[in-house]
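haha ok so turns out i had the wrong file open the whole time. this is the CORRECT one, sorry everyone. sequence first:
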Amino acid sequence: MDLHLIKMREGWDGKKCWVHARMCETPDRMVATAQHLDVSGSDLFAGIHVSFSYDGGKTWSEFAPQDGLAPIVDEAGDVTVGCDGTPMYHKKTGKVLLLGHTAVYLGSTGKLKPNRKRSTFYSVLNGDTFSRIRFVEMPEALFDSGNGCGQSIELEDGTLLIPIYFADGSGRTSVTVMHCAFDGETVTFLEVGNSMTAEKDRGMGEPSIIFHGGRYHMTIRTDSAGYYTSSADGLHYGEPQLWQWEDGEILPNYNTQQHWLTFDDRLYLVYTRRGVHNDHVFRHRAPLLMAEAREGRLIRDTERILTPERGARLGNFCACQLSDGRAAVMAAEWMQPAGCEKYGSNNAIWIVEIE
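then structure:
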């Protein structure tokens, strides 16, 4: 296994930084998305921007805004922004589908709207242009939900398994998987699997799924730890278990998402954790690491550090499969809290190619 580190870009003005850097590969190019964050507050996002590469990721166009991914202003003046988006290549239609969820801001105040509801948004790339953001129509019980930062799966018939988390009425969130149709333009809800939550803190969120070894695997974020579960059909999952090393020791990951890769016919988890000289990093969200996963256990001696640690968190990242059996991880240095730059961070966007 060889790791190749690419710095896609870096630099920031001290006021806004690129976050949610994510990518996918199509037969003729690579597509990346990212958006600006206003560092004066918490989760103050602008519209999603897009970049393209036509040489296998060696060079990229500048991130550019798109009208279809711009914020939406309603009649009351409240602003809805698509955020936490992840692009995926849909083989059956040949389209790139961007999935994520929303943040809603109160008028022109720039503050998150109290008691706001999330929606699962999508947008379709036609040529070089993403369509106007639309929302998946789903049962009322799932309306306050989102696919933020999730890895989804295209099945052989072209339908999708989309992991989401949703407000379950208890003050916590639960995770589940939607089965949806996609015809190249519209995502249509078909059915939903079982729901899972943690009976403490904020519940479970930011699930990601992958198919490997004849089963569907899910990894889940909670405030205190990462969780794993699996499924035979992709919709109905067993009781989530804490991520552990093969000797039973709990993986010291917390309050941060994890994602999946397959490489050389093996399954890998990409994650962050305590204990790698990173106590100065917010929630220990850097560096990104990778280890082989077997039946819900991580194999300690396979762990590799993927990215530099320069003080900034990298926890909102992307893991994706590339052609020829390769894989990649993409992450942006999130320039909060103030002062993280003293360790060398400069809002770099890193791409790690694995081959």
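The first strand starts at residue 3 and ends at 9.
again sry for the mixup
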